[in-house]
């Protein structure tokens, strides 16, 4: 038996004991998760939803949270001496599918120790690192106003 589910704006074909990598979901490692947006259930007979299959859900377990490889975003404006390089790492959640449920059945207790709604975590930043403070020696620098202005070279007339 297989199902097509929708989560994070994408559709996935899943079967029992499959592991899939999704956009970051709320929950901790080992938490049970239920996907309610089932678009199709297949097996001996195929059930299509309009748009969702009534009473169908897919149960899974969060295996881990991880980040993808870094992609580089490089922008350059030619002949303008302007360029910018920036990296990005997308956050993902790895989920193992435990059951495909139809006819309004609930996930078994062994498969679902906790029930967490499957939704993408919006604007969640990775765990914040503590801010580093300046060393004590750097804090005792002279104020900027006390610095002398730099002497400039006089311009020469070369015509």
Summarize the structure.
The protein has one helix at residues 136-139, and strands at residues 2-7, 10-15, 19-23, 32-35, 38-42, 47-48, 57-67, 71-77, 82-88, 91-101, 116-117. It has 159 residues and is mainly β.
Structure overview:
The chain is an all-beta fold and 159 residues long. It has one domain (2-117). It is built from one helix and eleven strands. It has a five-stranded mixed beta sheet with strand order 3-10-7-4-11, with no helix packed on it. A four-stranded antiparallel beta sheet has the order 2-1-5-6, with no helix packed on it.
Q: Topology of this protein?
A:
Layout (H helix, E strand, L loop, with lengths): L1 E6 L2 E6 L3 E5 L8 E4 L2 E5 L4 E2 L8 E11 L3 E7 L4 E7 L2 E11 L14 E2 L18 H4 L20
Parallel strand pairs: 4-11
Antiparallel strand pairs: 1-2, 1-5, 3-10, 4-7, 5-6, 7-10, 8-9
């Amino acid at each position: 038996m297989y199902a097509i589910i929708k989560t994070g704006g994408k559709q996935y074909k899943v079967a029992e004991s499959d592991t899939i990598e999704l956009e970051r979901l709320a929950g901790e490692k080992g938490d049970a998760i239920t996907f309610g947006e089932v678009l199709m259930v297949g097996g001996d007979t195929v059930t299509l939803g309009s748009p969702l299959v009534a009473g169908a859900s897919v149960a899974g377990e969060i295996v881990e949270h991880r980040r993808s490889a870094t992609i580089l975003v490089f922008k350059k404006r030619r002949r303008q001496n302007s360029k910018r390089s920036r990296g990005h790492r997308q956050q993902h959640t790895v989920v193992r599918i435990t059951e495909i449920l139809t006819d309004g059945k609930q996930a078994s207790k062994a498969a679902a120790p906790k029930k967490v709604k499957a939704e993408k975590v919006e604007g969640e930043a990775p765990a914040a690192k503590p801010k580093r403070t300046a060393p004590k020696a750097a804090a005792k620098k002279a104020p900027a106003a006390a610095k002398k202005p730099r002497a400039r070279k006089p311009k020469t007339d070369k015509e």
